Amino acid sequence: MSAGALTFIEAGSTQVTDLGRRRGPRYGVPVNGALDQRSARIANILVGNSDVEPLLELTALDVEFVPDVDILLAVTGADGHLTVDGVGRPSNQPVSVRAGETVALRDLQGGLRAYVAVRGSFDVPRLLGSCAPDSVLGFGGRVAAGQAIAVRRSTPVIFNQHFAAELYCLDVPRLPTGFVIDVTDGPDIADFAGTAGRLFDQPYLVTPTSNHIGLRMTGPLPERTAGGEVLSRGVPVGAVEVPPGDELLVLHRGRGVTAGYPVLAVVTPGSLDLLAQVRPGQRVRFRRMSTSGAAARARADRVELEALRLRVQSVFSALDALSTATTGRTLS
To answer: In what residue span(s) does the Carboxyltransferase domain sit (predicted)?
Structure first.
């Protein structure tokens, strides 16, 4: 049951998504979901949601909406100018919004995508357990101006300044600066013999044909020396493929489940999130990493997010206790 709704005045290129359709690949359906998974997780953590809850993904363009109930939201990912009724508010922190106030996020910089999570999340349709859009299946899609999205929970505005300060001063992990993309060796690296190292020699330019399915890049291409055709087979998200022609292809979360190009390398999960923030016309540089190093980095990232989650939970517990003592109501 919904408690209210957000009504969009300006929607830009916004969609409702989550961490993706994990059951999809077994049915031949792309996983899809938030392209910058880390930023999406942090947004939900900051408002006390489960990681997998639906949230808004904004790509490049501005968004503006009005809730008809009090909400608590958080904005993560690319930096933008967040305002509530014209007053600037911080990104990467929980922000209280009263019913009827106008929330706007404009001028995304330092990245391509931002994420907006609302405490309690949204009441939206799901397919195979996920609300992630899928253009092939015709499920989901972009939000339109004038559209309303149901919010599951109203969250009273936090008035106590001491506890608000605790909530708004969280040490939130930020996006790395620069676009250095870590990769592990792919299953077909031997097919490129002495030219595989070209991947790491110079930066690659991301082209305008890039999208959620994959990023196309130009640069010094490795040359496949092995003969024979590569049969269509399952490919992972993050596969670095070298198709015929003059472009490198890095598959992202909207990629098909199978493909038939040689896979030179595989982008690590953390760097895949970073690729989600690269704009066409920007350059990236690849860096080779061992599988053990990639696993260690992934473990460290999980520990960092878990520390943030525990910190947020402790603050919400204190706020709930205060709210119950003073008003008889909890934040939830």
So the answer is: 26-304
SS (H, E, C) 13-43: CEEEECCCCCCCHHHCCCCCCCCCHHHHHHH
The answer to whether 240 and 253 are in contact (CB under 8 A) is no
- One domain, residues 107 and 230: no
Classify strands 283-288 and 180-185 as parallel, antiparallel or unpaired. parallel
Cα–Cα distance for residue pair 164/265, rounded to 1 Å? 46
Q: Helix or strand or coil: residue 88? A: strand
> Rounded to whole angstroms, how far apart are CA atoms 264 and 242?
7
Q: How many CB atoms lie within 10 A of CB 26?
A: 9
Is 128 within 8 Å of 23 (Cβ atoms)? yes
pLDDT digits (tens, 9 = 90+) for 254-272: 888 777 789 999 999 999 9
CA-CA distance, 207 to 198, in Å (whole number)?
A: 19
Reply yes or no on whether the pLDDT at 173 is more than 70: no
The answer to the question of residue 297 being in a domain is no
**Side chain identity at 247, as an amino acid letter?**
E
Could you give the C-alpha distances from 182 to 2, 33, 232, in angstroms and in order?
A: 42, 21, 25
**Same domain, residue pair 218 and 115:** no
User: What is the domain range of residue 148?
Assistant: 4-173+302-327
Compute the radius of gyration of the chain from its Cα atoms: 21
pLDDT tens per residue, range 101-119: 999 999 999 899 999 999 9
In angstroms, the first-to-last Cα distance of the chain is 14
Inside any domain, residue 296? no
Name the band, by pLDDT with cuts 50, 70 and 90, for residue 203.
Answer: very high
Tokens representing 271? 């760097």
- Quote the tokens at residue 260: 């038939």
The CATH number for 207's domain is 2.40.100.10
Q: What are phi and psi of 116, to 5 degrees?
A: -125, 115
- Put simply, whether the predicted model's pTM sits higher than 0.85 gets the answer yes
